Amino acid sequence: MTGTSADLRVKHAVYPLAKALSPGRALIRVGIVDDHPLFRLGLLHALERQPDIGVLWELGSLANLDRMLTTSPVDVVLMDLCLGGDEDALAATAGIRGNYDGVAVIVISGSLDWDAPSAARVSGAGGYLPKDIAVPEMVAAIRALASPDAGTAAFSDMLEGNIHRNADIAAARRSLTRREREVLTELRRGRTNKDIALGFGVSTSTVNKHVQQVLKKLHARTRAEAVVLVNAAASGRPSPVGHSSRGSGHL
C-alpha cells in the first residue's frame, strides 16, 4: 500500500526517546496499531506517564508496520483486533511473532467476541485485553510480557484458563438465542431497553422479556452484573463479581 505524505502524517507518528531511567532499569519500547486516532492518543498519553515505558510509534493501519518494526524496534506491540478495511490483525500478529524475534504482541479489542482470546493465542499473541481495561492492568500486562523473567506465562495461563474459570458463563452463552445474543451485545453498549426496542423495531415489552431471559440464563441479578460477567469471560479475566447459581432477573 502507498500513500501521500499527508496520509502518512495522519496515519502514523514516530516519537523520539527522551526518558532518563535509573541505572539498571531498561525502557520498555512500545508500538501501537489501532485505526481510532482518539484511542491511540489516549493510550499514548496513559503509557507515557509510566517511567519505564516509552511509545516509539503509533500506526492507524498495517501499511507501515514492517517498516516501523525494522527502523524503530519495540519490545511490545499493542494490536487492535478490528482494524479497518480488509486488514487482518491476527495475521499481522502471526507475522510479527514469526519475523521479529523477541517482539511480544498484546491484542486489544473493543468488541464482544467470545472466540477472540483463543484466536489471539493461536496467532501467537502473548495477551488479549479489552479496550476498557483499567490503565494499571494494561501497564502490568506490558511489563509482564517485556520481562525476561515473567515471559508470556501469565497471559498464556489467562487465555488457557478462560474455559475453566468461565465455563458456566460460556455454557450459558451457548444457550442464548440469536435475538438474546443481540440484546446482550446492546446491553454491553449501555443501551436502554427503549433504545434497543427502537433499534430492533419491536416493542419495549418484547425487549424486557429478552433481557429477563438473558439475566436468567447468565444467572445474573442485574443488567450491570450480566455485562461484567460476559466481559470477563470474553477477555479471559476472572469475573470480579460473585457468580451465583441463582439469578433473580432484575432489570
Unreliable segments of 5+ consecutive residues: 1-11, 150-165, 238-251
* CATH architectural type of the largest domain: 3-Layer(aba) Sandwich
What series of H and E elements makes up the topology? Answer: HEEHEHEHEHEHHHHHHHH
Biggest sheet, spatial arrangement of strands: 1-3-2-4-5-6
What is the CATH H-level superfamily of the largest domain? Response regulator
- The overall strand count is 6
Q: Might you state the CATH topology name of the largest domain?
A: Rossmann fold
CATH domain class name of the largest domain: Alpha Beta
Mean pLDDT: 77
- Count of discrete alpha- or pi-helical segments spanning 4 or more residues: 13
**Rg from Cα:** 20 Å
Derived from helix and strand composition plus strand pairing, the structural class reads alpha/beta
Q: What's the story with the biggest beta sheet? A: 6 strands, mixed
